[in-house]
Write a structure and sequence with these properties.
The protein is α+β, with helices and mostly antiparallel strands. It folds into two domains: 84 residues; 155 residues, 3-Layer(aba) Sandwich (Trna Endonuclease, Chain: A, domain 1), CATH 3.40.1350.10. Strands 4, 5, 6, 8, 9, 10 and 13 form a seven-stranded mixed β-sheet that branches. A three-stranded antiparallel β-sheet has the order 1-3-2. A hairpin with a 2-residue loop joins β2 and β3. The longest helix is centred in the middle third of the chain and has 19 residues.
Length: 254
């Protein structure tokens, strides 16, 4: 819920006047401050701001000026705003390894595929020498689709996702796709949107370079806010749509 209050502050700071919660929400979404899949984000915004004011009183970063209309608390200076907006921190364990982080991301993606993909089964290979993280098939069919999953961890302040894939593990094959997901450590879950890129499209668009440790690699860099100006924008989907996207890919396989 941090995104709602933080984005409201940014909008009100720029507007320099009170705004209705619906206007705050619309401006926040349009500016890319707020990403939400909820059907009534303006209601959520209104409820969160009212709750913040009721609970924190004069220590809230916001004030209510009219019904469902809010402004920045004039008693706060910029140094105090950060504290006023700050919620309890939940830092992830410092002992967790990169592999464990990757496994968590893959498991979450597998859950989403199973939950929202009709009649899909999901398997994890014993060996990942070929860079395949998940194997998906429709029940009663032997056609399989293969996924590489790249997970990056950060907070809502991270506006981009950067990942690499080894060239030798990305084949020009319609049965292969790559998923890039951002795990928001503040929310404790994968961001509402993920990038699902068929391997053939990925090879066309990704920038190739050389890494001393990994060898020849493809680099993926995508912005989370400027969706309309990013070359990967057309691959950005609601995370719940991944299963349906995979089903369509499976239907094209011979």
């Amino acid at each position: 819920m941090k995104d709602f209050k933080s984005s409201a502050y940014k909008v009100l700071e720029g507007a320099k006047k009170p705004l209705h919660s619906k206007d705050i929400t619309n401006r926040a979404i349009k500016a890319g401050y707020l990403k939400t899949t909820g059907k009534t984000p303006e209601a959520t915004m209104n409820a969160l701001l009212i709750t913040d004011i009721n609970e924190k009183k004069n220590k809230s970063a916001f004030i209510k000026t009219d019904p469902s209309t809010f402004n920045i608390n004039p008693k706060f200076n910029k140094s105090a705003i950060r504290t006023a907006l700050k919620e309890k921190d939940y830092p992830i364990s410092k002992t967790i390894s990169s592999k464990q982080k990757g496994d968590i991301g893959e498991a979450r993606i597998a859950e989403l595929i199973m939950l929202y993909g009709e009649n899909l089964s999901c398997y994890k290979p014993i060996s990942d020498d070929e860079g395949i993280d998940l194997i998906i098939k429709q029940r009663s069919s032997f056609k399989t689709f293969h996924l590489q999953v790249k997970t990056r961890y950060g907070t809502s302040s991270n506006t981009s996702l950067i990942a690499v894939a080894k060239e030798k593990c990305v084949k020009k094959d319609t049965a292969l796709g790559l998923v890039f997901c951002f795990f928001d450590t503040e929310d404790g879950d994968i961001w509402d949107y993920i990038w699902f890129v068929p391997a053939i499209e990925f090879i066309k668009l990704a920038k190739k370079s050389y890494n001393k440790k990994l060898g020849s690699i493809y680099k993926f860099i995508a912005g989370r806010s400027q969706k309309d100006t990013n070359k990967w924008a057309k691959f950005l989907i609601d995370k719940r749509d991944l299963g349906n996207k995979i089903i369509k890919q499976l239907e094209t396989l011979k």
